[in-house]
C-alpha cells in the first residue's frame, strides 16, 4: 500500500510503498476513505510522543470500510463503514471495566503506538470494542473528522466541562478542536467567547455563532473575557496546549469555574505559582480531557444525524497523500481555521 512515512523525527516524510497491515485476531483492517490532518500528528512527527517508533506512518482520525476481520471478532463485518476513536481500548483493564475506555491502561493509538491512517489501509485493534459503525447518511469524509478533534471537543464540552444552556464558555484556540468546541457549546445553548490570533479562525468562530471573538496578541485576555461575561466564564477550554493559553484560560474563569485542558502540551512546562494561587482562591476545577470512548459515540452521532451538530462545516480543505507530507511539516507554524482531510 501507499503511505506517508518518516524515518527520522522532524525530517520531511515521503510517500512510500509499504507492506499492507496484518489483521490481528481481535482486530479489523479498514480501507481508508479519508483521514484528518491534526496537530497531534505533528507532535508525533517532531518526536514529542515517546510511543512513536521509527520508521513511522502517522494519522489517527479516519473513516472507511472494513476489508478484513480477525477470527475472534464477533460484532463487526467486512463491508461495514466505520470510524474509531484515537484511543483504542483493551476492554479488560481496570479503567475499561469502569467504562473509561478513553484512558485505557493498555491503550493502542493508531499513528502513535503503531502505524496510522496516512495510508491506504489501517488497523483497528480490538474491533468489537473500538470500531464504531456509521449511520448510512453520514459521509465517510465527515466521519473522518470526528475521531480526534470533534469527539475530543464533544466530551470536553459535554462531559468534562459540563457546559449548560446560558453558560459563558471561553475557547482558547480555534483550530479544528476549538471550532468543534464552539459549535458543540452553542448547540447546547451556551454563549461563547472565542480567542485566536488568526483573523480567519476568528471569522470562522463568528460564523458558527460565537458571541465575541478576541485576538490574544492585542489585549489582556482574562480581563477582556471577565468584562464580556460579567465576571468570568463558567467553563474555559485550552484547545492549543501551551503555558500562555493555559494561563489565559484559568484567568478567564469566574469563581468556581472549570478549566478543561484538551490541547496537548508540546514539552515540559512550568505553570506560574500565581495561577495555582488563583485556582485555590477562586476554588476552580482543573480538568483534563483525553478523547472519547467508542461506546459514547452514539449520542454524538444522533445529534449529527438530527442536524443539531454539523461537523462537515468545519472541513476546509481536501488533499491527497502526496501533499500530506509538506502539510504535516507546516502544522508547527500554520494558521488553522478548520479541518484538512487527506483522501488516499
Classified by CATH, the class of the largest domain is Alpha Beta
Number of helices: 12
Helix content: 25-40%
**Poorly predicted tracts of residues:** none
Termini separation (Å)? 10 Å
Number of domains: 2
How does the overall form come out from the CA principal axes?
Answer: globular
Q: State the order of secondary-structure elements, H for helix, E for strand.
A: EEEHEEHEHEHHEHEHEHEHEHEHEHE
How large, in whole angstroms, is the Cα Rg? 19 Å
Please name the fourth-level CATH homologous superfamily of the largest domain.
Medium-chain alcohol dehydrogenases, catalytic domain
Strand content: 15-25%
CATH topology of the largest domain: Quinone Oxidoreductase, Chain A, domain 1
Average pLDDT over all residues: 94
Count of extended strands: 15
Which structural category fits the helices and strands?
Answer: alpha/beta
The largest β sheet comes out as:
7 strands, mixed
CATH architecture classification of the largest domain = Alpha-Beta Complex
In short:
Keywords: Metal-binding, Oxidoreductase, Zinc. By secondary structure, the chain is of the alpha/beta class.
Amino acid at each position: 500500500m501507499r503511505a506517508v512515512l518518516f524515518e527520522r523525527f522532524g525530517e520531511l516524510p515521503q510517500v512510500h510503498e509499504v507492506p499492507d497491515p496484518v489483521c490481528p485476531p481481535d482486530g479489523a483492517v479498514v480501507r481508508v476513505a479519508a483521514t484528518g490532518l491534526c496537530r497531534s500528528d505533528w507532535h508525533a512527527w517532531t518526536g514529542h510522543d515517546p510511543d512513536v517508533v521509527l520508521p513511522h506512518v502517522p494519522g489517527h482520525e479516519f473513516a472507511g470500510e472494513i476489508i478484513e476481520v480477525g477470527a475472534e471478532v464477533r460484532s463487526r463485518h467486512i463491508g461495514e463503514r466505520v470510524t474509531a476513536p484515537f484511543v483504542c481500548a483493551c476492554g479488560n483493564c481496570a479503567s475499561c471495566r469502569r467504562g473509561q475506555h478513553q484512558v485505557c491502561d493498555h491503550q493502542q493509538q493508531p499513528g502513535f503506538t503503531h502505524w496510522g491512517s496516512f495510508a491506504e489501509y489501517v488497523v483497528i485493534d480490538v474491533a468489537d470494542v473500538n470500531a464504531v459503525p456509521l449511520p448510512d447518511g453520514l459521509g465517510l469524509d465527515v466521519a473522518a473528522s470526528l475521531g480526534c478533534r470533534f469527539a475530543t471537543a464533544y466530551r470536553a464540552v459535554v462531559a468534562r466541562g459540563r457546559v449548560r444552556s446560558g453558560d459563558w464558555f471561553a475557547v482558547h484556540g480555534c483550530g479544528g478542536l476549538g471550532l468543534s468546541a464552539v459549535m458543540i457549546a452553542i448547540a447546547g445553548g451556551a454563549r461563547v467567547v472565542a480567542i485566536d490570533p488568526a483573523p480567519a479562525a476568528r471569522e470562522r468562530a463568528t460564523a458558527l455563532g460565537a458571541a465575541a471573538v478576541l485576538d490574544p496578541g492585542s489585549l489582556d485576555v482574562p480581563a477582556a473575557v471577565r468584562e464580556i461575561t460579567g465576571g468570568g466564564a463558567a467553563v474555559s477550554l485550552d484547545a492549543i496546549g501551551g503555558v500562555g493559553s493555559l494561563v489565559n484560560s484559568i484567568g478567564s474563569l469566574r469563581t468556581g469555574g472549570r478549566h478543561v485542558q484538551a490541547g496537548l502540551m508540546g514539552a515540559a512546562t512550568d505553570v506560574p505559582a500565581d495561577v495555582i494561587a488563583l485556582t485555590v482562591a477562586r476554588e476552580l476545577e482543573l480538568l483534563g480531557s483525553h478523547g472519547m470512548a467508542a461506546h459514547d459515540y452514539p449520542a454524538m452521532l444522533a445529534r449529527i444525524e438530527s442536524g443539531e451538530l454539523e461537523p462537515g462545516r468545519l472541513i476546509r480543505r481536501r488533499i491527497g497523500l502526496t501533499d500530506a507530507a509538506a502539510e504535516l511539516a507546516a502544522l508547527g507554524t500554520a494558521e488553522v481555521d478548520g479541518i484538512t482531510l487527506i483522501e488516499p
